[in-house]
Amino acid sequence: MPELREHSDIGGNNWEGMHEATLVAGTEGSRLMRFDVEALDRVSDEFLTAALNPLQWPSVLKKVSVASGSYGINVVPIAGRVLDSIIETESLKPAMARYFEDEWNQRDFRALQVPRLVRDGVVLEQDFASAEQFDTLDYYQAQVEFGLRWTAMIGFSSGDDLLVFALHRQIHDGPFDREEAAILQHIRQKLMISATMMRDISASAVGGMSAAFEIANVACIFFDRLARVTTINDRAKALLGTDLQITNGELRPACGEDAAAFNRRLKSVLGTAVSFEADEDGVLLLRRAGKRPLIARIQRIGGDVQDIFSHSCALAVIEDPEERVQQRPGTLNKLFGLTRAEAEIAQLLAQGMSVQEIASHRGISYETARAHLKSVYRKTETNRQSELSLLLAKIRMS
Known about the structure:
Elements: E1 23-26, E2 29-32, H1 37-44, H2 47-52, H3 57-67, E3 72-77, E4 87-88, H4 93-101, H5 114-120, E5 122-124, H6 131-136, H7 138-144, E6 148-158, E7 161-170, H8 178-215, E8 219-223, E9 229-232, H9 234-237, E10 244-247, E11 250-253, H10 256-270, E12 283-288, E13 291-300, H11 304-307, E14 314-319, H12 329-336, H13 340-350, H14 355-362, H15 366-380, H16 385-397
Antiparallel strand pairs: 1-2, 3-4, 3-7, 5-6, 6-7, 8-9, 8-14, 10-11, 12-13, 13-14
């Protein structure tokens, strides 16, 4: 019988001295620890690579599964959009498909272990389930079809979102043991760093998009996968008030019917609802007292793999039809090389003013206004007022 070795540095930050094969005892009898510690250490370093390229997560999980002697691995959020957000190895796909088909995600008794997971970081199946429960509970009976029973769950966070990195073993493999749980604490630290990196990268991208919309004078609001507001630019903040508010992190139109429609559409985009009420082009109208309704369009950003690590997963662009369409002079200067005077004249012309009205408004002669207008037409490659107005409207909507 192989010798049982002890290591005083198991709970520390040093992997040196950990071995590949340590004898442990499980309910199925004695067995060798399945962890290849050196390979697991090396592969878990690839979490950082996957943070930069999220499409690599399935490949990295497969390597971790092999190095840990697991049947498969999945990463899943505790709350919110779960089914479409899960990352898993191919080996677990049939079992996970049945798990959601039978709606175990709605009644899994293991959800009671969330406080323990937050406290301890790593929780093993045998920490909360007894031999009797393995034989009697419907959940474990359902898992028998796939030969699954034992899990080691690593809890880690992405912002305010709690995620679970779950390693699965089959019944005949026996459970994960305490020494393996200690090693998984090291894995948890790397997961935390990777999740923070991915969230920061996502937040930076969202900040850039928000700034771009601001430059284009477009109001935008970003949401996380739980439909909570994450970012709102200044143009959108200007629309907040009695008719449109943010309460407890949620965007709430004053009209109850509109609020319900907006919520359905947002959840549909986030994958937590089946259908939504909107026109074919996805337009939602948010009614206001004494004013024309605001026009809202919601779209998804990012992808399924990134969702559980993302700062934001959806974007709402909101227009105020009572606000005059107007681009900042600097924007038109960059796009067409217009001078500030030409940009201002282009804006006034797009608003419907005649050349004479523009001249009077700016305190310049009619001839000077015409000269500026000719230059505007030449630089924007338009020939008449209607073409220029249409062009600027497209820029406003892009």
